[in-house]
Specification:
heterodimer, A: mainly alpha, B: about 350 residues, Rossmann fold, globular, binds adenosine-5'-diphosphate
Chain lengths: ~260, ~350
């Protein structure tokens, strides 16, 4: 059964991350130092006494730690391999495998994400402890938060997947990856909380899938969105996952024609 | 057996299969790219040009032709990687490019130049992934690994990461990967390229067994040994067109035009006088007096005419005609020297099939 194949891909890709743990840890280091810098800057800013969207220092810490987790998810070089296979035409070999391309790539992502989650939560937890703690929501809210983090995995996968498919048209994946990273950092709220952005940019972020990537889990964790509002945000995440999943299938079908019809 | 009266259904059927590649005519750099946006000029190549092939279950077909003839493109069309520009292709009742997943289950493909193994994984893990993709049961999987170990000595490769394999090792592992799910139809595109003799022998042995077990095989190769060992039928493609499709023996009749006859006469005869009687042949003196080697084009002279001429000079003591070697033909195919003369005496049945 194909389901077993995808499950096997999940396991194998998790194991691959362990085999290449040096790469994995180095990749996290970059985000980790960025986190330390952000924590430092925000402490100075908040100590200056100015108001930044009403955030207290412990809340801002919690926000930054959530952003650290969400921006570390689905970041481990799977997209570069996919891009390289498209560029070199090796992707044609994936067409003779009895699995759906998008689902197979997603399975690999899930395998890596499981480890990313474990490691980033451990790192975030340690930092929270060392820096004097962060507010912790009650259990129901914590469960909603867990669901919203879980939804980030397929959602971010789809954003990365769709942008990587651009390699069927452009040779320059570095450019695509860079543009995507910047756009996601700004519009997801992982760089700074969306409330601090100009309102037109906030609106843009809310209308696009990006806010679901960081702002949603952060708002749920901090209790800024509770009950019905939180459920609404989760439904929005689910909606985006559905829409982008279908979009991914359509774009793939169109993109692969570059290879199969025009010969790459 | 009703087989004598009923035609066997072909398992691979290509009709007028054509693939035209379109490459943008653009010069280097940004300016070239911009100009292309405006002018949109393309160069087109018919990589595969109205190719028709009909292959019955269990047949092993050698698919040969010079570099760039369209062999790999044909294999990609048959495996559903490419969509034909025109023409039809049906493999095991499936149109490969329409139903890729169903097609993937029934065929095994190997491209010698590219690996299908997961680069970062030990061979064992790649095979386990394929096992799960194809839903192969544990007992069958073990049996397959044992079989591959016996012929390809796969066992020693299982713990090795794919990117650390040598070319020959990689090819052995890739063969296992392509054949793990026991496909009834197998396309191998240059499976012995770059392999040393020992590995080649092993691979050929494996392919022979595969064919003996009833697998339908299309084998693209530069290696004459592969062809003679494994296949009875040969299709020759040149410039995207099939120029011969038929038995291996027929190739000699069709394309090996030169014959070489060694004659020993009972008395010493001047080579010049033999040459004078056979102006269309090349006569070279042999090792001792009265011995000659006569090379002639069998579409110009018959062996009988040559013998009659020689015996008109003196009694023939001994006579030897060299077997035309298929190697010579195939070597000519690959070097692009093959002359395609219509076979005047009608031996060339099968040409342009
Ligand atoms: N993707 C492609 N785009 C453009 N031209 C191609 C492409 N693939 C192959 N060709 C051209 O098609 C012809 C046949 O190539 P190929 O099938 O690879 O030949 P072979 O395998 O017999 O060496 C060659 O002229 C080659 O340059
Ligand atoms: Mg080729």
């Amino acid at each position: 059964m194909a389901a077993r194949a995808y499950l096997c891909m999940v396991k194998v890709s998790a194991r691959t991350v362990l085999t290449y743990r040096a790469n994995f840890v180095l990749g996290l280091f970059a985000v980790f130092f960025q986190l330390l810098a952000m924590l430092y800057v925000w402490r100075l800013l908040l100590e200056s006494g100015k108001d930044f969207g009403g955030y207290t220092w412990p809340q801002m810490k919690a926000y930054l730690l959530v952003a650290f987790v969400t921006s570390s998810l689905v970041s481990a070089y799977g997209d570069f391999r996919m891009a390289a296979r498209i560029r070199d035409g090796l992707v044609s070999l994936d067409l003779v495998k009895p699995v759906t391309y998008q689902t197979a790539r997603f399975a690999e992502t899930v395998g890596r994400a499981a480890l990313e989650l474990a490691v980033t939560f451990a790192v975030a937890g340690s930092i929270a402890l060392v820096t004097g703690g962060i507010p912790v929501p009650d259990l129901p809210q914590l469960l909603l938060f867990a669901v919203s983090i879980a939804a980030v995995v397929p959602l971010k996968f789809l954003v990365v997947y769709l942008s990587t498919l651009l390699c069927f048209w452009t040779q320059n994946y570095m450019g695509v990856a860079w543009a995507r990273t910047s756009l996601v950092a700004l519009l997801s709220g992982s760089l700074i909380p969306l409330v601090l952005l100009p309102s037109w940019l906030q609106t843009t972020a809310m209308l696009l899938p990006f806010a679901s990537l960081t702002a949603t889990p952060a708002a749920i964790y901090l209790g800024q969105a509770t009950g019905g509002e939180a459920l609404g945000l989760l439904l929005t995440q689910a909606g985006w996952v559905t829409v982008l999943w279908v979009a991914g299938r359509l774009v793939w079908r169109f993109a692969v024609r570059q290879l199969t019809v025009h010969g790459g | 057996m009703p087989a004598a009266t009923m035609a066997v259904m072909p398992v691979i059927e290509a009709r007028e299969l054509t693939k035209v590649f379109r490459r943008p005519d653009k010069s280097e750099g940004l300016r070239g790219s911009l100009r292309h946006l405006v002018t949109r000029r393309y160069t087109t190549t018919s990589a595969v040009d109205h190719v028709s092939l009909s292959i019955e279950p269990g047949e092993a077909v050698a698919y040969v032709g010079p570099n760039g003839a369209g062999k790999s493109t044909t294999v990609k069309l048959l495996s559903g990687i490419l969509v034909p520009t025109s023409g039809e292709v049906v493999v095991g009742g499936i149109v490969p490019h329409r139903d890729r997943i169903a097609n993937a289950r029934q065929v095994g493909v190997l491209f010698g130049q590219r690996t299908q193994l997961w680069w970062d994984l030990p061979v064992r893990e790649s095979l386990a992934l394929l096992r799960d993709m194809y839903g192969i049961g544990p007992a069958d999987y073990r049996a397959q690994l044992a079989r591959f170990d016996e012929v390809l000595e796969l066992g020693e490769l299982l713990p090795v990461t794919a990117r650390k394999l040598s070319l020959g090792q990689r090819m052995r592992a890739d063969l296992a990967a392509a054949l793990l799910h026991r496909p009834g139809i197998v396309y191998l595109d240059e499976p012995t390229i770059g392999l040393d003799i020992a590995v080649k022998d092993r691979v050929r042995d494996f392919l022979r067994r595969l064919v003996a077990d009833g697998t339908t095989l299309i084998l693209t190769t530069h290696d004459l040994g592969d062809i003679e060992d494994v296949c009875r039928r040969i299709a020759i493609i040149d410039g995207g067109r099939i120029i011969y499709d038929g038995g291996l023996d027929g190739v000699k009749d069709t394309f090996a035009r030169e014959r070489c006859m060694h004659v020993r006469l009972t008395t010493d005869v001047d080579p010049q006088s033999v040459a004078a009687l056979l102006p269309d042949a090349e006569v070279t003196p042999g090792g001792s007096p009265g011995e000659f080697t006569i090379r002639f084009d069998r579409f110009v002279l018959t062996a009988g005419q040559v013998i009659a001429t020689a015996s008109s000079l003196a009694e023939i003591d001994d006579l030897l005609i060299d077997e035309p070697a298929i190697e010579d033909v195939v070597r000519k195919v690959y070097s692009g020297e093959l002359e395609l003369e219509p076979a005047e005496d009608g031996v060339g049945a099968g040409v342009g099939a």
